[in-house]
Design a protein that fits this description.
By secondary structure, this protein is mainly α. The chain has 2 domains: 1-56, no CATH class; 57-91. The chain contains 4 helices and no strands. Its main location: membrane. Belongs to the cytochrome P450 family.
Length: 91
């Protein structure tokens, strides 16, 4: 569960860099606490973190997970052959 009610104290103080990098503090992370921040959190909960949006990207997540597993599998086989090659050289 995502809790957006409390913010870490580190994020409470804004810097001049935050103004330039975060569109004048208009992101959820850097916006000053108040009406604007509450509206951003509400929009994030409704539009980004909703179950409908989560389900809409299920196939994308599955494809990405398959690609990750294939890549890890390929790397594991490459590492295995590399290790066996090192054993042959060291003997």
């Amino acid at each position: 569960m995502l809790h957006l009610k409390r913010r870490p104290p580190v994020l409470a103080n804004h810097t001049i860099i935050g103004e330039h990098l975060n569109y004048n503090h208009t992101t959820v992370i850097t916006a000053p606490y108040g009406d604007h921040w509450r509206n951003l959190c509400r929009l994030a909960a409704i539009e980004i973190f909703s179950s409908a949006r989560f389900n809409a990207f299920a196939s994308t997540r599955n494809d990405q997970a398959k690609q990750l597993l294939c890549k890890l599998s390929q790397n594991a086989w490459g590492l295995k052959s590399l290790m066996s090659g090192l054993r042959i050289i060291s003997q």
